[in-house]
Amino acid sequence: MVARKFRCAIYTRKSTDEGLDQDFNSLEAQRESCAAYIMSQTHEGWEALPAHYDDGGYSGGTLERPALQSLMQDIGKGLIDIVVVYKVDRLTRSLADFAKLVELFDRHSVSFVSVTQAFNTTNSMGRLTLNVLLSFAQFEREVTAERIRDKFRASKEKGMWMGGKPPLGYDVDKRKLIINEGEAEQVRHIFDRYLELGSAMALMKDLDARGIHSKRWTTQKGRTIGGACFTRGVLYLLLQNPIYIGKIRHKDQIHEGLHASIIDMKTWGKVQDLLARNRHENRTRKNASAPSLLAGLLFHKDGTPFRPRQSQLQGRRLHYYRHPETTLPAPEIESIVTSELIALLGQQTELCRIIGADHPNLIELVGTTAAQHAAQLKAQPTREVVLNLIEKVTVEQSRIHITLNRQGMAELLGYADTSVVNEDAYSDPVVLTRRYQLKRVGRGKKLIIGAKNPNETAQPDASLLKSIARAHAWLEDLKAGLSYKEIGARDTIDERLVARTVRLAFLAPDITRDILNGREPEGLTSQGLIRLPKLPANWDEQREALGFT
């Protein structure tokens, strides 16, 4: 009788991107240990599947991880019998999430094995042991987050600089902020010109014309960052940064710093008053008192706004957004936007990237605050939270683009100070895109998300196009003899991101053509494509891995 074969999927995870560019990294070490364990069970019929389920740079506090989602989908398809991990916390560090995974495993008769904690979930003792270990993993995660939070708070109360990129006007010497006189003059000019011009947009254009850019800084690893043109988000951060009056901010508390000030209190007070006045006028202009959640935020592709309207139909009050060319039902478009925001708030690593809080230890802290706001949005979406998260929503013929408010998001998550936030993260807008189809149902209209209308011309994703163009340009640089490090230094970008992006130059021609024509699969984004653990060399395998048909 032929022994039954057990198909084993190896899952690996690492919380940060650090070290992933090495020839033999943590993910590969985990995979090697798991593969050796599976080989030791060959007599039981175990065999390792060739598919890689590797999540590099993703926290264990959420299930929103590309490789884990792929693993769960393959379990649902009946392709896996046993899931093998190096340690249980590689799969998840949340007891609630683990309960969901165990339910999925049980439903599809899948066992779970940790090679360093010898047990599996096929018996009651293994399940008990697993729950105990996972409880301690979650406890460790919460205690670590509290310890980091307390350390930041205590250090800030003493006025200490907590590391990271120094703000314009200062250099770092032995972990202390020292005034850079040349840059300090630029900071004083920025504050004075804002008072003269009265607008961040006008100030941004003025500084660009004068050639005044953000701070250019070289990290300890030799990577040069900064030197970019100012954006409104960066300027708002700079103008509100109490570091320039000799203080340190920690969340909503301001403490005396150990460094010298650049701006006098009189100028600081005038700038803060003007910022508050402009903020009030902006909120009023966006109709903050209106019941419509997206009033002042929803725009047609031609740049004109949608206006919130109401009407009566057979005793029912209908809410909608009106534009000369189209009308959108308010409950559905608002639901789409809030659903996207809730999903984003569940992605801790991505949130840190968006707001520029690039310290690895901040991942869990950001995740805790984000989870609270996600719960609030689920229960009752409020305009105040939406205004902090969204810059605008643009409606095209078959797509909805949600441009995020990176400064507001940083403030909402409690990290809007430059001691933990990298200002240059605000240089480029972050846009979430969803396809939709507007259909008439009875006497009203209904939005169908994700549907494609074959009669409409698909619009290419600008972010995907930019990444592919970059990949081909950098590939030519490599052929010319430049290294990843030299390219990264020249373009002020992480050399690891250069290495990941260059792979896109080897996409199958028909995949590239579909992306150029806007025919990529639903959910495929530039960030997701770049962060793929592995891009198959075989074009047929590429199509299958990326969901192209």
Question: Can you offer a commentary on this structure?
Answer:
With 549 residues, the chain is an alpha/beta fold. It is built from 20 helices and 20 strands. It has helices spanning 26-40, 66-76, 88-91, 95-107, 124-157, 181-197, 200-210, 232-239, 265-285, 330-345, 348-355, 362-379, 383-389, 406-412, 462-479, 484-490, 495-502, 509-516, 526-530, 539-546; strands at residues 6-14, 46-48, 53-56, 82-85, 111-114, 119-120, 170-173, 176-179, 216-218, 224-226, 247-250, 253-256, 298-300, 307-313, 316-323, 326-329, 390-395, 399-404, 431-441, 444-449. The longest helix has 34 residues, at 124-157. Residues 417-421 and 451-457 have low confidence and may be disordered.
What layout of secondary structure does this protein have?
Blueprint: E1 6-14, H1 26-40, E2 46-48, E3 53-56, H2 66-76, E4 82-85, H3 88-91, H4 95-107, E5 111-114, E6 119-120, H5 124-157, E7 170-173, E8 176-179, H6 181-197, H7 200-210, E9 216-218, E10 224-226, H8 232-239, E11 247-250, E12 253-256, H9 265-285, E13 298-300, E14 307-313, E15 316-323, E16 326-329, H10 330-345, H11 348-355, H12 362-379, H13 383-389, E17 390-395, E18 399-404, H14 406-412, E19 431-441, E20 444-449, H15 462-479, H16 484-490, H17 495-502, H18 509-516, H19 526-530, H20 539-546
Parallel strand pairs: 1-2, 1-3, 1-4, 4-5, 13-17
Antiparallel strand pairs: 5-6, 7-8, 9-10, 11-12, 14-15, 15-16, 17-18, 18-19, 19-20
Main sheet properties: 6 strands, mixed
Enumerate how many helices there are, as a single number. 20
Structural class: alpha/beta
Extended strand count:
20
Shape: globular
Average predicted local confidence, pLDDT: 79
